[in-house]
Amino acid sequence: MISKEIRQKYLEFFKARGHEIIPPAPLVLAEDPTTLFTSSGMQPLVPYLLGEAHPSGQRRLVDSQPSLRLGDIEEVGDNRHTTFFEMLGNWSLGDYFKAEQLPWFLEFLTKELGLAKEKLWVSVFEGDKTTGVPRDEESLAAWQKLGIPKERIFFYGVKKNWWSRSGEPALMPVGEIGGPDSEIFYEFADVPHDPKFGETCHPNCDCGRFLEIGNSVFIQYQKQADGSLKELSQKNVDFGGGLERLVAAASDNPDIFQTDLFLPIIKRLENLSGRNYLQDPETTRAMRTIADHLRAAVMIARDGVLSSNKAQGYVLRRLLRRLLLFTKKLGLEASGDYFLGLISILAESYGDIFPDLEEKKAEIATSFREEADRFDEVLKSGIKEINKVPMIDAKTAFYLFESFGLPFEITEEIAREKGQTIKKEDFQKEVEKHQKLSRQGAESLFKGGLADQSYEVTRLHTATHLLHEALRRVLGDHVRQEGSNITAERLRFDFSHSAKLSVEELKNIEDLVNEQIAKNLIVTETVQDLSAALASGARAFFREKYPERVKIYSIGPSFSREICGGPHVASTKELGRFRIIKEEAVAQGVRRIKAVLENGGQKIF
Hints:
Mean pLDDT is 87; it is low at 439-452. The protein is globular and about 70 Å long. The protein has 17 helices and 16 strands. The strands form 3 sheets. Strands 1, 2, 3, 4, 5, 6, 7, 8 and 9 form a 9-stranded mixed β-sheet that branches. A 4-stranded antiparallel β-sheet has the order 10-11-16-15, covered by helices on one side. It has 4 domains: 3-257, 2-Layer Sandwich (BirA Bifunctional Protein, domain 2); 274-388; 392-449, no CATH class; 454-598, Threonyl-tRNA Synthetase, Chain A, domain 2 (2-Layer Sandwich), CATH 3.30.980.10. Helix 3 packs parallel to helix 4 and helix 10 (336-349) crosses helix 11 (357-386). By secondary structure, the chain is of the alpha+beta class.
C-alpha cells in the first residue's frame, strides 16, 4: 500500500466519523513568532484547543500536516528518523475522548491498513507525583477491552508518555497546553533485539524492533504561573501518526527509506553514484541523509525561504550543507542538473498535494546550486582557518561550525589526518550549551508560551495590518506579506519590494498608519465562506490553502480587510503612536521593516 492510498484512506476514515477535512497549514507560519516551522498538526489549532470556535464550525477535524522537526537531525541516517514528515492528525475539540479515539485508530490500523493486531503494542501514561496527574487507568482498560493483552501494554512516565510542544511538564512555559498520551507501536518480528540497548526489548527500545506509528494525546491541562497544571474547560484529543512510519508498517519493512516516499530518490542516487544503497553502512547513511534533507529543504524553499544566516534561512542552509557533505561522500557533483533531477522526483511524488512544486522546481534547483557554490567557498575558508590551529578540540570544532558553517564531519576528518581525535559527544555538549543559551534568549524574547496571545503582541499584530495596507498604498499593489515576527516589544514585517525605501516613502507610510490610528477605527471580525470573503474584497496574502470558512478582520469601513487568524484589538485607539525604527533588505526582492508602538493607547473592554 503506497503513501497516497494511506493518506487518503485516513482522511476518508475520519470523515466518515463526522470529521471535517481541513487544509494543512504552511510549513512556515508567518503569523506565529514563537516558532520557525510547523512541527505538529496541533500547532495551528492551539486557539481552538483552548476553546475558541473553529471557523469551520466543527468540533471534529482531520488533516495531513507537513511538519519539520530538527531535534533528531543527528539521528537521520538510521532506518526511521527524518526531519520533514507528514503528520496524519485527527482532533476532538471538546467532543469525543478516549472511549472513541482508541478504538477508532485501532480499527483504522487493522481493518483499513490490514495490520495484524498481534504485532501492535501500546504504551500508557504511568502518572506523575510532581504534577498530580494520575495513572491513565482509562486507556489501560480501553486497550484491554479491545483485545490488547496486558503483556503488550507498557507504562511510561513524563519523558515518554506526556506530550506538549515543549516536552514534559517541567519544560512547559506558562500558558502551554498538553497532556498524557497513549502510543501504538508496530513490531517488526524479524528484527532481533540488540543487547546494547538493554537487557530486554520493549516498545520504547531503540534497537529497531519497534516503531511508533501513532500517538493519541489527551490535551486537558494548561501550565500555570505557579508551575502547576490546571485542567482545561474542555478535554481534547490530538492524534498524530507519521505517514512515513505508517507506510513502513503497512509494508512490514522497518526501513522507511525503502517505501515509495523515498525509494525513487534512493534509486536515482544509486544510478548517479554507481553504488548500491545497502552495499555498506557509509553509503546507506549518505543516501538516507540526502533523501531526507532534500525533502525538507525543498519543502522549506517551496514556502519562499532562501538560504541565509538567520531563522528559517539558517535551517535551510544547514540542511543543504549537510546534504552537500554527503553528496561529496558519494563522489557526486552538486550541479544544477543534480538538484533538478532530484527535485523533479519530489514534484512528481507530491503532485497531488503540492502541484506548485512542478512550476517552482527549476527556481529551487538554481537556488540550491548557488548555495552549493557558497558552501565550496566556506570549505576553503574553514580549512584555511583550521590550519592555523595546532590542536583541534571540541570547542574549535564548534567555533568552525558556528562561524564558518564547517560541518563537524569535515573538522573531524582533518583532525584525524593530523593524528588528533575529537569526541563527538564533547562537540555535542558545545552545541547543547549554545542551544540552551538560545532557548533562554527565546524565552526572554517571547515572554514564554503563547506570546501571540498577549495584549502587547495583539496590539502590534493589529498594527501589521495597518502597515501592510499603508505599504500597498504608498509603494504599489505588488507588495505582499512575506513573513512577520511579533514580540511584545516590536513588530518585524517582511514584504515583497525590489528597492530600498526612501526617507520620504518611510515617512509617508508611517504617517498613513498614524492617521488611521488617530481616527479611532473599529476592528471588526466576521466569519465567511472563503469564496464569499474573497468576492467581498478581503485580501488573502499567504501562499497557503485556506479552509472553506475563514475569519476576516476589517479595520474601519474601508481601510484594511484581510483574512487572518487573529488576535486583534477592538479599536485603533488602543495602539498608540506607530514608529518605524529600521528598514533593510532580507533577500532578493524582499525588504523588512521593524516598528514599535509608543505611548500605549487606551484598552477597550
